[in-house]
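Supplementary Note 3. Input sequence used for the single-chain structure prediction.
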Amino acid sequence: MAETEAEGATPSDGGVFLCVVDETAELWPALRFACRKANRQDARVGLLCVVEPAEFQHWLAIGDLMREERREEAEETIQLIATAVQKQTGKMPVLYIREGDVKDELLAVIEEEKSITLLILGAASGPDGPGPLISYLVQKKAGGLRVPITIVPGNLSNDEIDALS
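The predicted structure, written as discrete structure tokens, is reproduced below.
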């Protein structure tokens, strides 16, 4: 079951630049790039946080409790990141919280929310590749998305990001 929570989903002239919120280090360079680009193009940043479904299904009450705890953690995380985005852009970002598989929910929110005009993702700089989401999107879905993807290398410094955006 997917849930959407889009706060302030009114698009500005430049649309919404969507970033996927996770706990990886490469999120921060992607967010900085998104914020700077949004400032220059009169756009807003969108934040998508996907809560993995509870795996514990033996007792319904425990599964529901686990789901609620994950949802609360996601809300706290997205609010902290939203505060950082608002400081950089002067605008509250558009917030999306979904439950399900991150790949499926990302594709769904891009299709449902026509105000989204760009997907900005941070790439891991380690030897294992850019990350599973980027690998999946580039290899399987890039040609079928309705928005372009910008991939920000996760090892860029703030100065390097500022020079690029």
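The mean pLDDT is 88. The chain has one domain: 16-164.
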